[in-house]
């Protein structure tokens, strides 16, 4: 054998060994995945197992979480669900293993609606890690009956014409002063400032008598709580979830301090000058005269204060950016606001709900922003007994993930779904279940009208008098926990002089 033949032989052997190794690794991986699936499905029995929707349970322990996080850390979060559609067809319902549980993912309007409207068979099913952050006694952890009672008590004073009317003036003053202040500040993190602005409003409703120091310290802590909300539940220093747990502890301590002070005031028989939501929560009694415990009050507050500012702050930022990036839409929205402003009687000070109702085009701008941005991209339920959706089994105890993002971007309902086009809402009312920006059923967001009011008032004054210039207009977008530019939208807000306002 020549040296050349010897070398060729050695190469051939190496290639063959590498191929065998690759096949063995593939078989081992495939075997591990099948074993993982089998371990979770074997209890179902053959008949029920065959009726599960198509899909795969991913890897042992982590399930499909790597694929999910990879997609949501890329610039194409929709590639996660797209890979299920590509592999298993457009069934709109898939099995997976997410956040430590076997899960059925629902991605289309009709099936989402069925789950959302059926409280008898689907209860909230948020991962334990999320419940530990928001609080076991908040709406994500309590019984259906208790939810109904607390929801009635807390949602009524927030929503509805009367309630919104009460908050309008405060919101308007805050918007006017905040915009004026930003215009003097040079470069700001627009998103960070908007979150402060929406936090101030929700604090006014829930804890109106607290001072600026409490407001500032709570708002800062919420940032850490939020970043841990959709992260892997790794409670080790350096990880987002660990920081979030620490943030929760701080929130509990601050709120307990406020609660103790209020109780002391009540013991002295001093009644508050103005009752806010915290006072109401302290006063609720059940049929036997029982009051809510401190833990219950604090968990409901932590949930509301969080839900009540993060999403509105983000949506206000995106709506402003979409308007700035689409000059024609900006001008149309501005024209509407100028007409509304012009028609305000000279004797009237500021906006009333009558003007808000006239903001028809602006309302479409906001709905379109909500639809595209998908702040709450997914929600969790749990089946209380074996259920069937489109003929597929949802086994008792399995999680159901409702992919609001996929529903809101469904091309069957919204052609060119990623195009920002407020006019698509002209003479269009989506069928029940096909617009889920605020969820649906008994868990529909109780702050939906308040959020739209805040955003409308902000955009009214912004459109009339201001413009925004971004430092990094092509900044990368991060999708977890909520979509945001990685620079938190560094920008300058400039006040246009009155002359240029008149010209446009
Ligand atoms: C643009 C702003 C907002 C968006 C996009 C939004 C979105 C949502 C969504 C999708 C849900 C349903 C979650 C599910 O199906 O389980 C929800 C629930 C909730 N939201 Fe909002 N929300 C916003 C603003 C607000 C505001 C301003 C408040 C407070 C006043 C609030 C308080 C809540 C609460 C307490 C829940 C839980 C309701 C329950 O379980 O009964 N949200 N929100």
UniProtKB/TrEMBL annotation:
<keyword id="KW-0560">Oxidoreductase</keyword>
<dbReference type="GO" id="GO:0005783">
    <property type="term" value="C:endoplasmic reticulum"/>
</dbReference>
<keyword id="KW-0503">Monooxygenase</keyword>
<dbReference type="InterPro" id="IPR002397">
    <property type="entry name" value="Cyt_P450_B"/>
</dbReference>
<keyword id="KW-0472">Membrane</keyword>
<dbReference type="GO" id="GO:0016125">
    <property type="term" value="P:sterol metabolic process"/>
</dbReference>
<dbReference type="InterPro" id="IPR036396">
    <property type="entry name" value="Cyt_P450_sf"/>
</dbReference>
<comment type="similarity">
    <text>Belongs to the cytochrome P450 family.</text>
</comment>
<dbReference type="Pfam" id="PF00067">
    <property type="entry name" value="p450"/>
</dbReference>
<dbReference type="GO" id="GO:0005506">
    <property type="term" value="F:iron ion binding"/>
</dbReference>
<keyword id="KW-0479">Metal-binding</keyword>
<feature type="transmembrane region" description="Helical">
    <location>
        <begin position="12"/>
        <end position="32"/>
    </location>
</feature>
<dbReference type="GO" id="GO:0010268">
    <property type="term" value="P:brassinosteroid homeostasis"/>
</dbReference>
<comment type="pathway">
    <text>Hormone biosynthesis.</text>
</comment>
<keyword id="KW-0349">Heme</keyword>
<keyword id="KW-0408">Iron</keyword>
<dbReference type="InterPro" id="IPR001128">
    <property type="entry name" value="Cyt_P450"/>
</dbReference>
<dbReference type="GO" id="GO:0020037">
    <property type="term" value="F:heme binding"/>
</dbReference>
<dbReference type="GO" id="GO:0016132">
    <property type="term" value="P:brassinosteroid biosynthetic process"/>
</dbReference>
<dbReference type="InterPro" id="IPR017972">
    <property type="entry name" value="Cyt_P450_CS"/>
</dbReference>
<dbReference type="GO" id="GO:0016020">
    <property type="term" value="C:membrane"/>
</dbReference>
<dbReference type="GO" id="GO:0051777">
    <property type="term" value="F:ent-kaurenoic acid monooxygenase activity"/>
</dbReference>
<keyword id="KW-0812">Transmembrane</keyword>
<comment type="pathway">
    <text>Plant hormone biosynthesis; gibberellin biosynthesis.</text>
</comment>
<keyword id="KW-1133">Transmembrane helix</keyword>
<protein>
    <submittedName>
        <fullName>Ent-kaurenoic acid oxidase 1</fullName>
    </submittedName>
</protein>
<dbReference type="GO" id="GO:0009686">
    <property type="term" value="P:gibberellin biosynthetic process"/>
</dbReference>
């Amino acid at each position: 054998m020549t040296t050349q033949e010897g070398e060729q032989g050695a190469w051939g052997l190496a290639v063959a060994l590498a191929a065998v190794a690759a096949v063995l690794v593939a078989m081992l991986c495939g075997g591990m995945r099948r074993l993982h699936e089998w371990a979770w499905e074997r209890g179902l029995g053959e008949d029920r197992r065959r009726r599960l929707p198509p899909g795969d349970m991913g890897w042992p322990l982590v399930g499909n979480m790597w694929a999910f996080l990879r997609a949501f850390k890329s610039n194409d979060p929709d590639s996660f669900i797209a890979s299920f559609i590509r592999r298993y067809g457009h069934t709109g319902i898939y099995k997976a293993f997410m956040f430590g549980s076997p899960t059925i993912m629902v991605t289309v309007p009709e099936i989402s609606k069925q789950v959302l409207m059926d409280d008898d068979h689907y209860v909230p099913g948020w991962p334990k890690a999320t419940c530990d952050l928001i609080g076991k006694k908040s709406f994500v952890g309590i019984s259906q009956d208790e939810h109904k009672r607390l929801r009635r008590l807390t949602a009524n004073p927030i929503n509805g014409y009367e309630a919104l009317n009460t908050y309008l003036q405060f919101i308007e003053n805050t918007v006017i002063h905040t915009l004026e202040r930003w215009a003097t500040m040079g470069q700001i993190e627009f998103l960070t400032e908007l979150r402060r602005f929406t936090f101030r409003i929700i604090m006014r409703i829930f804890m109106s008598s607290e001072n600026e120091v409490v407001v500032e310290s709570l708002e800062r802590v919420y940032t850490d709580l939020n970043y841990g909300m959709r992260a892997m539940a790794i409670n080790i220093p350096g990880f987002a979830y660990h920081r979030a747990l620490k943030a929760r502890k701080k929130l509990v301590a601050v709120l307990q301090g406020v609660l103790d002070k209020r109780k002391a005031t009540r013991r002295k028989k001093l009644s508050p000058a103005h009752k806010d939501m915290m006072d109401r929560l302290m006063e609720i009694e059940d049929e036997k005269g029982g009051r809510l415990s401190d833990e219950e009050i604090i968990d409901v507050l932590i949930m509301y204060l969080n839900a009540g500012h993060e999403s509105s702050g983000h949506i206000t930022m995106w709506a402003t950016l979409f308007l700035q990036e689409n000059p024609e839409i900006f001008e149309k929205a501005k024209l509407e606001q100028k007409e509304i402003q012009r028609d305000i009687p000279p004797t009237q000070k500021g906006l009333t709900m009558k003007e808000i109702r006239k903001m028809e085009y602006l309302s479409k701008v906001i709905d379109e922003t909500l639809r595209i941005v998908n702040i709450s991209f997914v929600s969790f339920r749990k089946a209380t007994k074996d259920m069937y959706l489109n003929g597929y089994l949802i086994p008792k105890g399995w999680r159901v993930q409702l992919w609001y993002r996929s529903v809101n971007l469904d091309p069957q309902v919204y052609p060119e779904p990623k195009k920002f086009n407020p006019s698509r809402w002209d003479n269009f009312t989506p069928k029940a279940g096909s617009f889920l920006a605020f969820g649906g059923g008994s868990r529909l967001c109780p702050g939906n009208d308040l959020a739209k009011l805040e955003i409308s008032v902000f955009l009214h004054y912004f459109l009339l008098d201001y413009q925004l210039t971004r430092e990094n207009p092509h900044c990368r977008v991060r999708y977890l926990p909520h979509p945001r530019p990685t620079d938190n939208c560094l920008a300058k807000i400039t006040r246009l002089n009155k002359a240029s306002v008149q010209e446009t």
